[in-house]
Amino acid sequence: MSDIACPLPITDYPNVLLAHGGGGRLMHEMLTRRVLPALGITDSGQTDAALQELGGARLAFTTDGYVVKPLFFPGGDIGRLAVSGTVNDLAMMGAVPHVLSLSLILEEGLPFETLDRVLASIRATADAAGVRIVTGDTKVVDRGKADGLFINTAGIGTVPAGLTLGPAQVREGDAILVSGDLGRHGIAVLAEREGIGFETVIESDVACLHRLVAKLLEAGIELHCLRDLTRGGLASAAVEIAQAGRLGITLEEAAIPVAAPVEAACELLGLDPLHVANEGRMVIFCPQAQAEAALDCLRADPLGAGAALVGRVHRDSPGRVALQTRIGSLRALDMLSGEQLPRIC
Amino acid sequence: MKYVEEFRDGQAVRAYAERIRRLVTRPWQIMEICGGQTHTIVKYGIDELLPPTVRLVHGPGCPVCVTPVGAIDRALAIAARPEVTFCSFGDMLRVPGSRKNLLMIKAEGGDVRMVYSPLDALAIAEANPQREVVFFAIGFETTAPTAAMAAWQARRKGIRNFSLLVSQVRVPPAIEALMEAPDNAIQGFLAAGHVCAIMGTEEYLPLAARYRMPLVVTGFEPLDLMQGIHRCLTQLEAGRHEVEIQYARAVRPQGNPAARRMLGEVFRIIDREWRGLGVIPASGLGLSEAYADFDAEQRFPVGELPAADDHGCMSGLILRGVAKPRDCPAFGTRCTPEHPLGATMVSSEGACAAYQRYRRLTEEALA
User: Fold this and answer.
1) Which residue of A has its CA nearest to B139?
2) Predicted local distance difference test score (pLDDT) of residue A10
3) Are A93 and A51 in contact (CB under 8 A)?
C-alpha cells in the first residue's frame, strides 16, 4: 500500500460561498471575524432584534432579506415568509410588532402575475398579523441577476416594560420547549426546488408567532429566552444559546417532535431534522415549574398544537449541547457546518 | 416509520449489548466497512454499549473519502470549463482537491450543480442540448447501477452532450487489500448492506474462506449493527468463518440480477487508486469499450495535473482501520469540518467527521 496522500487544506476561502449564508458555523465565522469588526461592532448581539430605547419607548428593531427559491412552495411563498420572518424576529424579543418596511428587488422579465401574487400574500399576511407596511423601495436588476424577486424587510415593535428576553436570562434548571414539529419548511422548500416527489406533500410551517408569544405572557409564563428556529434549526439555536448563556443544554431526541413524512425525507436525503430550517417554530426557555402551564397554553393554539418539552438547562459542560439519543447514549450536538449537503448513499 | 423505528428500539439494542457482554471471552477486532455504519455507530454511541474487549474499527467505506485527490482535480478542471455543466452528489462538493473544491469553482462562476441521481444529470443534458453535462460518478456498487443506467439511457436516446467522469470502486478487492496489509489486525467484517443488496454475497465467500474470517452483511440502524456485531462475535467465539446475512430484509444471496446485468454492460473492472490506500488491483469500474464515448476524461482531456502535497493527514491510516480519528494530532484543532485537512473530515460519512460531530462532548467530559 502506498503512503498517505492528502489534499492541501482549504483554510481560507477567497470568495463567498453559498455555505456562508447557511446559518451555520461558516456564517458565524464570517460575521464575527469579518463583518462585525469591519463595522466596529463589538456587541455581536445574540438576539433576533436590537433593543433600542427611543423617546421613552422600548423598541425592537430588525431587518432581514429573503431570497428563497422557488418563490412559491407548499404551505407558503416568499411574501408570506418575508412578513412572518420579520414579525417573528420582533416576537422573539417579546415585542408587539407594529410597522414594516418593504424593499423589492425585481428581476427583469418577472411576470407581473407573479409579482401580484406575492404582493397579495404580503398584504394578507400583514393584515392577519396586524402590522402595517409604512415605507418601501423598488429596484429592478438585469435578467439573471436575481431569482425573480428578492425581498428585504425591516420591522419595528414595542417591548413591554420590564420584559427582557435573551440567552443571558436563561437559568440553570430552565425547561426547553419547542412550539411544534420541526423541519417542515426546509424539507418543503428543498422538495419543491429539487423536484423531489414524496408520497405526502410536506407543507412549510411558515407563520407569525407574535400572538403565541403574547398568549404565553398573558398566561403569566416567565419567559427567559425565545428563538425562532430558522436556518440551522434547533441544533444551531441551542448551541448559540448555550454558548451565549454559558450553560449546558441537554435535549431528549425521543421527545423532539418531527412529523413522519419529514423524518422519512430526512432519512432519505441524509439530513438531520435538528439542523433543518423552520419558519413558524420557536424554542422557549422558561422555569421548569412553569413548563406544564406553558405547554397547555401553547397547545391551546393551532400554531402550538404540536408543542413539546424537549430538554433542560444545567451547569454541566457550559456552552455545550448534548443529545440523549433514542437508544440511551449521549452525544454532542453541534452547529451546522456550512450547508447540509445530501449524502451519496 | 415502518422498518426503521423497530430497528432503533433502545431496549432491544441494550438487550443485544447484554448478550454480547455474556458471549465474549477474549478481545476481538471487527471492521465495519461502510461509512453509513460508522456514522450510525458514532451517532448512537453503539461502541460505548459494547464491552471494552470488542474493538470496532472503521473501514474505507465512505465513497467520498476514498476518491483520490487526482480524480477531484480532474473534476475541478472539467467543472471550470465554460461549456460544461458539472453535476455531482451533494457531499462531494466540499471535498478539497489540491487547491480548491467544487463549491469554490461554483463561486468563481462554474456551472456546478448538486443532483440526487445521475438520471437527474441526464435530464439536465436533455433539456440543455447546447451544454456539455458531466456527471461525477463516484461511489461503490450502490451508486454504480444508476450511473450505468444514465449512460445506457443516454446511448439509447442518442443524447450526445452527456458524459461520466467515473471514479467508481468495488468493495471486495478493498477487503482483500486490507487483509493483506502487514499491519492488519482485523478479525471479522461487517459488510455493507446496500452494496450486497446489489451484488449479493457470492464475491465474499472466497474472502471469508481465505482469511478465515466471519463476514456479516449488516444494515444501518442501531439494532442492525448490534445484531451484526453479535453474529460476527458468535462466529469468532465458535471459531467459524462464514458469510451471514443480518440485513435479510434487503439482501438476497444473488443480489439484484437486473442491476448486475446493467453494470456488466456499461462498466468493466479496472485497477483503481483509492485515497489513502493506493492502487488496488481490480478495485474499480471504468466505462466499457461500448460506452467509451461517454467518458468525460476522453472528451475533456485535462493533461497531467500537478500532484497534491502530503500534509501529514492521517486519513489513510484511518481508512485502513489502523488509527482512529482521536489518534491524529490535527483532529478537532487544525482539522475541522469547516477546514478539513483530509477526506475523512470532509464527508459526512467520514470517520473523522462523525467523531467531530458526535463525540466532542464525551471526549471533553473525559478529558
Assistant:
1) A344
2) 45
3) yes
pLDDT digits (tens, 9 = 90+) for B88-110: 998 888 888 888 889 899 999 99
Residues 208 to 247 of B: which have CB under 8 A from any A CB? 222
Q: Which among A321, A327, A334 has CB closest to B222?
A: A327
The residue ranking higher by pLDDT, B359 or B61, is B61
Residue B26: the pLDDT is 96
CA distance A295 to chain B (A): 26
Nearest to A334 among B313, B334, B357 (CB): B357
B361 band by pLDDT with thresholds 50, 70 and 90: low
pLDDT above 90 (res B231): yes
Residues B149 and B137: their CA atoms lie apart, in Å, by: 12
pTM here is 0.81
Whole-number percent of chain A with pLDDT over 90? 68
Task: Among A4, A8, A19, select the one facing B317 at the smallest CB separation.
Answer: A4
Minimum-distance CB partner of A2 among B103, B278, B337: B278
Q: Let me know: does A314 contact A171? Beta carbons within 8 Å.
A: no
pLDDT value at residue A338: 65
| Range name among A3-7, A18-22, A102-106, A253-257 with the lowest pLDDT average | A3-7
Subunit contact A7:B320, Cβ cutoff 8 A: no
Q: Bigger pLDDT: B320 or A169?
A: A169
More confident residue, A299 or A44: A299
Interface contact B338-A26, CB threshold 8 A: yes
More confident residue, A108 or B352: A108
8 Å CB contact between B292 and B268: no
3-state secondary structure chain B: CCCCHHHHCHHHHHHHHHHHHHHCCCCEEEEEEEHHHHHHHHHHCHHHHCCCCEEEEEEEECHHHHCCHHHHHHHHHHHCCCCEEEEECHHHCCCCCCCCCHHHHHHCCCEEEECCCHHHHHHHHHHCCCCEEEEEEEECCCCHHHHHHHHHHHHHHCCCCEEEEEEEECHHHHHHHHHHCCCCCCCEEEEEHHHHHHHCCHHHHHHHHHCCCCEEEECCCHHHHHHHHHHHHHHHHHCCCCEEECCCCCCCCCCCHHHHHHHHHHEEEEEEEECCCEEEEEEEEEECHHHHHHEHHHHCCCCCCCCCCCCCCCHHHHHCCCCCHHHCCCECCCECCCCCCCHHHHCCCCHHHHHHHHHHHHHHHHC
Q: Which of B92, B102, B106, B339 to mutate to test the interface with A (most CBs of A within 10 A)?
A: B339
Pairing of strands B84-88, B111-114: parallel
Strand order in the sheet with B28-34: B54-61, B28-34, B188-192, B215-218, B243-245
**A4 contacts B49? CB cut-off 8 A:** no
Average of per-residue pLDDT across A340-344: 67
- Which residues on chain B are in Cβ contact (under 8 Å) with A270? 91, 348
Statement: residue A264 has pLDDT above 80: yes
* Chain-chain contact of A3 with B316 (C-beta, under 8 angstroms): yes
Q: What ipTM, to 2 d.p.?
A: 0.70
| Cα–Cα distance, B204 to B208 (Å, whole number) | 6
- Tell me the range of A65-69, A164-168, A293-297, B328-332 where mean pLDDT is highest: A293-297
Give the separation between CA B215 and CA A281, rounded to whole angstroms.
46
Amino acid at position B278, single letter: G
> Are the C-beta atoms of A81 and A206 separated by less than 8 Å?
yes
